[in-house]
Structure formats: C-alpha cells, structure tokens
Design a protein that fits this description.
2 domains, globular, mainly alpha, 3% strand, Ribonucleotide Reductase, subunit A, binds fe (ii) ion, two-stranded antiparallel ribbon, two-stranded parallel sheet, 14 helices
Length: 371
C-alpha cells in the first residue's frame, strides 16, 4: 500500500492515511485486521449445531417465511441510471473525498463478506435444520450485498478478488455466545447506519454523491432481519441474557459503539458531503440501535451520560495520536504507541463504569424496521 504525502489542508492526519490507488492497495486494506477494521470470524460449529429454537418457534417460523419470500431477490441489480450517475458524479470527487469513499466501500464490502463467510461456514458444518436454513438465507443476502459493493469498486478498477480475500485474511475465533452478541449488534447497527444515511439523502437528494445510497432502504431491511434472527436465537437461550453475561453484553455494546465512533471520525469528508456531522450521525445511530436492542438486551448503555461522550472523544484523540506515533516509527514511536494503548485500555475501563439502565424484556421478541 502506498503512502503518498500530499498537501491536504482539511486534516493534519490525512497524509498519514494509506492511499488506495490500485487493486493491490484495495485488497491490502481489506486484509488488514486491526481494532478498527472488520474481521473474519470462525466459531464452535458443534455448539451451533445444538441450538434449539423451540422456545421461540412461532416467531421463528414467521421469520423463516419472510426469508423464503425473498422480497429483495431483484433489488441488487444496477440500472442504466446507476451507470450514468457513476459516470457523471465520480469525476467530481476531490482526491481526498475519493479516498474516504473508497475506504468506506472497502470496509463495507469486508464486513458484508465477513458475514457471508461466517454464515456459509456454519451452514456447511452443521446439520441442525433450523440453523442450517437460516444460515443459508443469510449467506445468500450477504453475498448479494458484498457483490453489489464490489461492482462499485470495479467502477474504479479496484474490484476485490473475494476468493483471495477469503484465503488470506486472518480469522478470529469467537465462542457462539460472543458471535451472537457481536453479530446481533453489527446487523442492527448496520441497519441503523444505512437507514440514517438513506433518510438524510432522501431529504437532501442533491447530497447523494453516489447512486449506491438509493439502494440502502431495501438493503438495510435485510440487515434488520438478520439481527432479528440472532435476537430470537438469544431469547431462546435466556441464560445468555442473565447474570455475568450482562457484563459481556455491556462490553460488546461499548466496544462496537466506540469502534464506530473512532472509525467514522477518520472519514469526516464523507459525512460532510452528505450534510451529516460525524458526531451527530453516530449518536443518531447509537439511539436507534439502543432502541432496537431493547428486544433482547436486559441492559442499555446511557449514551447521554457525560462520561460516555468524554471517553469516546478521548479514545478518538488517542487513536489520532497513535497514528502519528506509528508514522514517526523507530523506538520512540513504538514507546509512544505502547503508552497510548495503555491509556486507551484505561479509557475503555472508565467507559465500562458508565452506569447502564436495566430493562425487562418484552414478551414478543420481533420488532419492525420503522426508522
Ligand atoms: Fe449485509
Ligand atoms: Fe447482515
């Protein structure tokens, strides 16, 4: 990956960003596994095979009928207008904006493909008919999403070879319960992110700088339904939502929110172009996600607590200073980086102490994507 130093005045750190200029750069970006980039997961397939959804059978069967109906089967096709908009709009992007948009496409593609691989691997390694059928449907959806994003990268001649990405990127092992917490959150936050962007650009069509955003409304309903599936799986195993597991739930909510906050603030131009402020956008996404999570999580993080906000700002500042230290390199750079990592861990510890609100779970699990 090339690191060009160009005179960019909007952000003193921007010149440190890895520039994406070739297909190799794009795949190198997708292969990266850091705190802030999407990962690939693997899990305990035997435990997955033993899952029992009978406590939520009625809601499960309704959901499976929706998957079977496949109301998005014809959605992920580009029309003539799409090509025309790409042709006229993309040359208008500034070089910095182009980098942020490419980074957005690559990280979105990586996380869609991450779901596709995980669901497919579970499907192949189990025989439990309920879970196998669910994984088949979700892998179908994620593969469409990843393919659709990849077509937009191909417009820039930066298409990613997904087979090669699957072989080269490292995999993180998570016990099933961590897969449930993390994947549930990432599906629901994915919904909240896409719908917030869609609604904003619906109000301000002049700010829709790429046609892909017109696809987000029906797209995010897939993500919403994927989240519903994990909600039902967790509600079918109530012990995952009680006792010490409540601390794990709190940990995952905070980790997902903090990662998103730091990540989004490294792409300020992208949100600006849509007429969004990164902080306000993130808080809107937190708010929607927290409301949805009431269907399954017995605890909710107080996102309006002043310490919550202060810790997110602090993590962002530490992350920026860490980028500078890494660019500096050498022993001094390494020492600085290590010191900053300790401070980030302490800050995350403080975040963990922000009080949470407890809530009783509703009798009916399913909810509707009404945002
Ligand atoms: Fe997806
Ligand atoms: Fe999904």
């Amino acid at each position: 990956m090339s690191t060009h130093t160009t005179a960019l005045d909007h952000d003193p750190l921007a010149h440190l960003m890895d520039r994406i200029e070739s297909s190799d750069d794009a795949i190198a970006k997708a292969v990266q596994s850091t705190m802030l980039t999407p990962r690939f997961y693997t899990t305990d397939f035997k435990a997955m095979d033993r899952l029992d959804v009978s406590p939520v059978r009625a809601e499960w069967d309704t959901m499976m009928k929706e998957y079977e109906g496949d109301n998005n089967h014809d959605h992920f096709q580009r029309d003539a207008e799409f090509a025309e908009e790409v042709r006229t709009l993309m040359p208008q992007l500034s070089p910095e904006m182009r980098q942020e948009f490419l980074d957005f496409l690559i990280s979105s593609l990586t996380s869609e493909f991450s779901g596709c691989i995980l669901y497919n691997e579970i499907r192949k390694n189990i025989s439990n008919p309920d879970i196998k059928q669910l994984m088949t449907y979700m892998a179908r959806d994620e593969s469409r999403h990843a393919g659709f994003l990849n077509q937009s990268l191909k417009d820039f001649n930066l298409g990613i070879d997904l087979g090669s990405l699957k072989r080269t990127k490292s995999y993180t092992y998570f016990k099933p319960k961590y897969i449930f917490y993390a994947t549930y959150l990432s599906e629901k936050i994915g919904y909240a992110r896409y719908i917030t962007i869609f609604r904003q650009l619906e109000r301000h069509p002049d700010k829709r700088f790429h046609p892909i955003f017109r696809w987000f409304e029906r797209w995010c309903n897939d993500e919403f339904r994927h989240g519903e599936s994990f909600a039902l799986i967790m509600r079918a195993q109530p012990h995952l939502l009680q006792g010490l597991n409540k601390l794990w739930i709190r940990f995952f909510i905070l980790a997902v929110y903090a990662t998103m906050f730091v990540r989004d603030h490294s792409r300020p131009l992208l949100h600006e172009a849509m007429g969004l402020d990164s902080t306000r956008y993130d808080y809107e996404v937190f708010r929607i996600t927290s409301q949805i999570c009431r269907q399954v999580f017995p605890v909710e993080v107080d996102i309006d607590h002043p310490v919550f906000k202060a810790c997110l700002e602090r993590l962002l500042d530490l992350s920026k200073r860490n980028d500078l230290a890494k660019a500096q390199g050498g022993l001094l750079g390494k020492l600085k980086s290590a010191g900053l990592a300790v401070q980030a861990a302490l800050t995350f510890g403080r975040l963990f102490l922000v009080p949470v609100k407890s809530q009783a779970l509703p009798a009916t699990v399913r909810c509707e994507p009404v945002w």
